[in-house]
Design a protein that fits this description.
The structure holds two protein chains of two kinds.
Chain A lengths: L1 H9 L10 H9 L80 H18 L1 E5 H20 L2 H10 L3 H14 L8 E6 L9 E6 L1
Antiparallel strand pairs in A: 1-3, 2-3
Chain B lengths: L6 H4 L2 H4 L10 E5 L2 E2 L4 E2 L10 E4 L6 E8 L13 E10 L8 E4 L10 E11 L18 H7 L7 E8 L8
Parallel strand pairs in B: 3-9
Antiparallel strand pairs in B: 1-2, 1-4, 5-6, 5-8, 6-7, 8-9
The chains are: A mainly alpha, B mainly beta.
Family (chain B): Belongs to the phosphatidylethanolamine-binding protein family.
InterPro entries (chain B): PEBP, PEBP-like_sf, PEBP_euk, Phosphatidylethanolamine-bd_CS
Protein name (chain B): MFT-like protein
C-alpha cells in the first residue's frame, strides 16, 4: 500500500513550503481521521498560504514509518522522516502567547539592532527581494513600510529623514522618484514575506522578503 | 559599494546595455550650456532638442551614434528595455551628427517613473552604411548589442550617460 502514497506525494505542487504533509497522511492511518483538529502552526503568519488540512482521499498506508499514535496528536512541530520533506517552520519552540512583547530584539544591543535594520532595509530597497532569517524579515517590515511612506509624501523634510536612515543616497533618490507611481494606490503592506527552507549551517528558519 | 571606479560600470551601463570596451574616441555632448558627464542629472526640459555632439577623429572615418534608455518604463521594472531615442549613422569624424544620416529622429527624454539613465553610444563604422539599415519597427525593446552586431560595428568607441527624472509638478506639499 506504500505505492499509491508515493504517487500521491509526487503530485504535491512545488511550493512544498509549510505543507503539513505528514499530518494528513498519518491521519488516514489512524482510526478516526475526521475527528482530528490539528492546530495549524502557520495561522499566525500574515502570509496566506492555504494548507489543505484533512484530505480524506489518501489511502491508508502501513509500514512506511513506525508511527506512535500518541506522537501525532496535537504536536505542531513534529518532523516527518520520510522522503526529505521538511516542515518549514524551523523547529523552534513555539509559545502560545506574545503578551507585552513590543519590540523584536534580534539578540543584539540597541545600536547594533538599529544598524542591522537600517542595513537590511537598504538592501531590500536596492535589490527588491532578499533572503534572511524569519525574525529579521518580520522585524524589518515596519521600517521598510516607514521608508516607503516617507517617499510617498515626497517633501524635502521627508527626504532628509529618509537620507538619515538609508545608507545609500542613490537609493533614497530612486525611491522618491519611483514610489508615488508604484505604490500610489496601495495603502500599507508594501512587503511580502515567504518562508523557505532552513539554513544549513545552523538550521535557522529563513524567509524571503520582497517588495510587493 | 563600487567594484570599479569606472562610472560606466558603477552606473551599470556596461552590463545592461554595453559590453566592456576601451574608449578610443572622444565625444563631448552639450545640452545647451550644460556639458554632459557620466551620471549627471539633466532635466527633461533642457533636453527637448538634440544635443550638440562633437566627435573627434579623422574626417574619413564614419561614426554611428545611438541614444537609448535602458530603464523604460521604470528602472525597477524595465519591461521595454531599451527605448531608443536617436540613431544617426555615417557621421564623418571631427563633426557633429547633423552631418550624418538620421535613421531615427530624436525624441526627448520623457521618464514616466523613476530615475532613468540615457546613454549616448558612439561606434566607429568600418564602411558606409547608407541605406543598409532602416528605422526599427518600434522604439521599445531595442537592443544596442544586436544593432551593433547587425551593422558589424564592434565595440563602442565612446559612451556617456546622464540621468533624468520626471520633473515634479508645480504643486509641492
Amino acid at each position: 500500500m506504500a505505492i499509491p502514497v508515493s504517487m500521491a506525494m509526487a503530485t504535491t505542487p512545488t511550493d512544498s513550503v509549510s505543507r503539513v504533509w505528514s499530518m494528513s497522511s498519518l491521519k488516514s492511518a489512524l482510526p478516526s481521521p475526521s475527528s482530528f483538529r490539528l492546530p495549524s502552526s502557520s495561522s499566525r503568519r500574515p502570509v496566506t498560504l492555504r494548507l489543505p488540512i484533512s484530505s480524506p482521499s489518501l489511502p491508508s498506508f502501513s509500514g512506511l514509518s513506525p508511527v506512535n499514535p500518541l506522537l501525532s496528536i496535537g504536536l505542531p512541530d513534529w518532523q516527518s522522516f520520510e522522503n526529505g520533506f521538511k516542515i518549514v517552520d524551523g523547529g523552534g519552540r513555539v509559545y502560545a502567547m506574545r503578551h507585552g512583547r513590543r519590540v523584536p530584539k534580534l539578540n543584539r544591543p540597541p545600536d547594533q539592532r538599529k544598524a542591522l535594520l537600517r542595513g537590511l532595509t537598504t538592501q531590500l530597497l536596492k535589490h527588491g527581494r532578499i533572503k534572511t532569517t524569519r525574525a529579521r524579515a518580520s522585524a524589518m517590515r515596519k521600517f521598510v513600510d516607514k521608508m516607503i511612506t516617507l517617499a510617498k509624501d515626497g517633501s524635502l523634510h521627508k527626504r532628509r529623514q529618509a537620507l538619515g536612515f538609508i545608507y545609500e543616497k542613490q537609493i533614497v533618490h530612486a525611491l522618491f522618484a519611483e514610489v508615488p507611481d508604484r505604490y500610489g494606490e496601495r495603502n500599507g503592506g508594501y512587503t511580502r514575506i515567504i518562508r523557505t527552507l532552513p539554513r544549513r549551517g545552523d538550521n535557522a528558519p529563513m524567509a524571503y522578503i520582497e517588495l510587493v | 559599494m563600487a567594484a570599479s571606479v569606472d562610472p560606466l560600470v558603477v552606473g551599470r551601463v556596461i552590463g545592461d546595455v554595453l559590453d566592456m570596451f576601451i574608449p578610443t574616441a572622444n565625444m563631448s555632448v552639450y545640452f545647451g550650456p550644460k556639458h554632459i558627464t557620466n551620471g549627471c542629472e539633466i532635466k527633461p526640459s533642457t533636453a527637448l532638442n538634440p544635443p550638440k555632439v562633437n566627435i573627434s577623429g579623422h574626417s574619413d572615418e564614419l561614426y554611428t551614434l545611438v541614444m537609448t534608455d535602458p530603464d523604460a518604463p521604470s528602472p525597477s521594472e524595465p519591461n521595454m528595455r531599451e527605448w531608443v531615442h536617436w540613431i544617426v549613422v555615417d557621421i564623418p569624424g571631427g563633426t557633429n551628427p547633423s552631418k550624418g544620416q538620421e535613421i531615427l529622429p530624436y525624441m526627448e527624454p520623457r521618464p514616466p517613473v523613476g530615475i532613468h539613465r540615457y546613454i549616448l553610444v558612439l561606434f566607429r563604422q568600418n564602411s558606409p552604411v547608407g541605406l543598409m539599415v532602416q528605422q526599427p519597427p518600434s522604439r521599445a525593446n531595442f537592443s544596442t548589442r544586436m544593432f551593433a552586431g547587425h551593422l558589424d560595428l564592434g565595440l563602442p568607441v565612446a559612451t556617456v550617460y546622464f540621468n533624468a527624472q520626471k520633473e515634479p509638478a508645480s504643486r509641492r506639499r
